[in-house]
Amino acid sequence: MDYLWTPWRYTYITSAGKAPVCIFCELQRSEDDQHALIVHRGEHNFIILNAYPYTSGHAMVVPYAHLDRLQSLPSTAATEMMELSQRLVAVLMEVYCPDGVNLGMNVGKAAGAGVAGHIHMHVLPRWVADSNFMTVIGEARVLPELLETTYRRLKEKF
Prior knowledge:
Layout: H1 9-15, H2 23-28, H3 33-36, E1 38-41, E2 45-49, E3 59-63, H4 75-96, E4 100-104, E5 121-126, H5 133-136, H6 147-155
Antiparallel strand pairs: 1-2, 2-3, 3-5, 4-5
């Protein structure tokens, strides 16, 4: 029998939903953007890599304000969120040459939000047939590069 080792997932599995503080609020206060995986800081939002990505390049646009409802986001922050999402899509298209891009929010735990208390926009590149047997049957993802590499590639475009 073959084994797939993904020890980096253990932190996610054992800590999901148990954090006493909001991970996005905690990371935005970091003075080390590279360690926090923050690619870009805007006036109202920041762009951060997903630490547990579905694909290489999976990033999120996150408002600084700790809000759990999209309708609570001030229009200036909502406008910037969309502008940063547009810019991020352009960068992902240039860097990764994907066949498409997924953008979306999971607002609330019932909708699948991993961080239900702090809204955020997922932006991730997709390729035709990238949902292969590893993801569907093996429940594992195969990423061709380290997060540090993804960070460097996106950071230089911002």
